[in-house]
């Protein structure tokens, strides 16, 4: 472990505490001085009492930051660090709100809660960027740079060297290289270690024999230097190493949506779906009345789809004539099913197992408006609240469509289906199925709360764009 890594990791703890307390102070004075002339203060919070609680909240924030891996020693990509800060602060502020709610206390300033959340994110990112800048400056003058020796083929060494040159803030330099681990190489490395010119060996050749690897392990153990090696595990992008009965096992991670990520996404779904259902209640009533006046039949259409845990009913505003609706509980004669098959064969605009019927004659007048504006999907907010769907995720498909999936397509079921998603905002029904799958898999592999937030913001624009093209 590099001494510089330990030093900067230790600095992060007091720095984060200072930035969080600074955010709390700034939020307080914004509300009770700057904004007091715009929105008068009804009940002022004593500053001493506020700062006392801020200390505990800041420490709680730092606990969540630690659980999110933000105090992990070693290099972290800026993008990953920003995403983790956003996730950790969002989780912490949600839990603080829940704490206030269950204590049945009336907190006198909603602005402070919102301001602390936003300012904390900005302050933590700013503090860490400042620390990165100092570290980069030191690396530029050769202070704290990590000299390493590499064993592996030249093409891989060149890739690593180019990356180190392009990202000097990582603080690595290649002091020695060899494509094998012979006795001569050991002698040269020993001399470099004794003169403190290398402190780690990286093996980039996963095809080395077990004997060679054991020799390298024994060598680094005896010389008290670090060893890392490239594990070529079927091209997996996310790996985690866990111990089971004393045996180290490598686990292939399918998505970031595990552990705290899954909890945060579920909390976000519950809170936002409740808010949207409350705000859109008048719209629900108006659409229901228009459907009732437009054609006979129930307002809500229950459509069976396939999700993460099997079959489940999705709720949509009915957009078709009731006698032409398919699925359990509707036409039992099979006529509607046959009409659907004929339309798919003649008018489907999509390639692959998923179909999309152009100018579907089964739709009612109101149904055409609902489908064009995606308002027919609003009742799926109740699916999100129940828990069989998410606000953002892959599109849920029918059992008939899933029956035509290839094996790789089943990776989509590693997360809950969503009302909207990356595929929907990138082309909606205009995409071929394979393109849609690629986008959905990209979302699954790179999920973050910020990613969900961006997709939700872009969804109305995608709907408007689609509407203008119909």
Provide structural commentary:
This protein is α/β, with parallel strands linked by helices and 470 residues long. It folds into 3 domains: 3-140, no CATH class; 146-232, Rossmann fold (3-Layer(aba) Sandwich), CATH 3.40.50; 260-468, no CATH class. It has helices spanning 3-34, 47-67, 78-102, 110-140, 154-166, 183-194, 210-223, 260-279, 281-294, 335-347, 365-373, 380-386, 399-402, 422-425, 433-445, 449-468; strands at 146-151, 172-178, 200-203, 226-229, 239-244, 247-252, 300-307, 310-317, 390-392, 418-420. The strands form 4 sheets. The protein has a 4-stranded parallel beta sheet with strand order 2-1-3-4, with helices on both faces. Helix 2 crosses helix 3 (78-102) and helix 8 (260-279) crosses helix 12. The model has no long low-confidence stretch (mean pLDDT 80).
